[in-house]
Design brief:
Helix content is 24%, strand content 26%. It has 172 residues and is of the alpha+beta class. A 4-stranded antiparallel β-sheet has the order 2-3-1-4.
Amino acid sequence: MTLPAPTYDLVLLLDPQADDATRAKLVADTRASIEGQGELLRHDDWGERALTYPIERKASAQYHLLQFHVSDTQLLSGLDRTLRLADEVLRFRIVKLAPGVPAAPEMSGGAAPARRPDEAPEGAPEAPPAQAAETAAAATGESASEPAPEAPAPEAPDAAPDDAEVAVGEAS
């Protein structure tokens, strides 16, 4: 019984300031070499996305994911050499996937807005005040069992008479 050819992921980060035709030719040549010596499973163009940190003074890159099967590892060394020499490639990574790894997520061309780790996702229920206090105490290193000093209740603003008209956006 022969084992199936291993699956590889190739992630390309291309310079968005490079000529579109040059980037398209690089991706087409990469696809052609994979299809010539292996089997291309999928090619996802994730579009231009912001980088976590600048690479070669670039703040964004055009992302591509190529998944493929290949039994001859000579293709991998050929891809490695070709992509290292290409000026349009900011970064690339070839990873051998372990059997049973789930499929890559479907990504659209636009990046999701960044969210701080302490923010809840939109639509998520807010934590009860006691749980929120424990979470805040854990983050600051304080004990949640100590009662926090209570803040004074805000004073009610002076109520305007019912017959007073105030225009929105104008000073009264």
